[in-house]
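Progress against Task 2.4 (sequence-to-structure conversion) is shown through the following example record, which the project officer requested during the mid-term review.
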Amino acid sequence: MKELELKYGCNPNQKPSRIYVENGELPIKVLSGKPGYINFLDAFNGWQLVRELKAATGLASATSFKHVSPAGAAVGLPLSDVEKKIYWVDDMDVEFTPLANAYARARGADRMSSFGDFISLSDVCDKATALLIKREVSDGVIAPGYTPEALEILRAKKNGNYNVIEIDPNYEPEKIEKKQVFGITFEQGRNELTIDGGFFDQIVTENKELSSQAKIDLAISMITLKYTQSNSVCYVKNGQAIGIGAGQQSRIHCTRLAGQKADNWFLRQSPQVLGLSFVDGIHRADRDNAIDLYIGDDYMDVLSDGVWETIFKVKPDVFTREEKRAWLNQMSGVTLGSDAFFPFGDNIERAKKSGVQYVAQPGGSIRDDHVIATCNKYGMVMCFTGIRLFHH
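Structure tokens generated for the chain above:
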């Protein structure tokens, strides 16, 4: 198959629409559903991300994409009991495989952004991972294969309309890639940069101690950024992205956006949130929305009389600003990656509030000395990669 006709492009008025290759055949098979233009953009970007994560770490990997940027990305490290609870999988009577762990963590990091995601998996989708996907609101999945049980589960999703794509894991694209904007063809060499352990050897801070887990987290941050719309930064902890800021014009706004997402991830693990008692039958998305409001500045939207009764069995106490700050002060060991240099130390100051200990960025700002000094003030480890990772 050299081409596949699509229903429409980015929007219903953009017709005709198709994907095709000029040479050879398309490296995919549609096993269920009818994926659209944006679905394939998410699928192909996400597949590259998880393929590179697997190559860099040797671990099963997954990502949750929305609108051509990852909402989450993770490798298949085991889930803690707290993580199972905040990702809404603690009630599942399944043996969590490495791939299932990877997807639970990729989906669970920012559940608000992942709602209606497109999933990419590095390994053959197994039954446990399919059961996780079955219960989430999602548009589709791409993987190098599916076990018979997994495929049966996924084909039944959305009354048989769930998008399931199989990709040839041996497919390699041409070295030159093209795109058109306003009838003008752009051409460039593909970004085939390999991100591995040696990518972080240039440590420019006084503290030069990088743990093995920190090296994995640094690789996750940079590979994730390689497929995130720029400007972008990525906070990572224990093998998963916990806050991704994509497509911001200002570096500090990017750092703040991703930092707030990382903070929300940690606040969901607080006793105040874990102790919330929801009414029976509440939908998973409604729980996510309620928690997001409860830990934010608009908490009265869920705590006002006449509203809280529809969400909680018992009215929660206000989670005060002071209590939240005290809990966040316990967060540590977080990694921060940036797709371009930090121009000022204010980014590091903001990162410190979210427990960042390790930083990777290209370097090259005229204020590098100030950024390094700010890291030294907090005992952080910072690597200069020398490589920018813009993606558009």
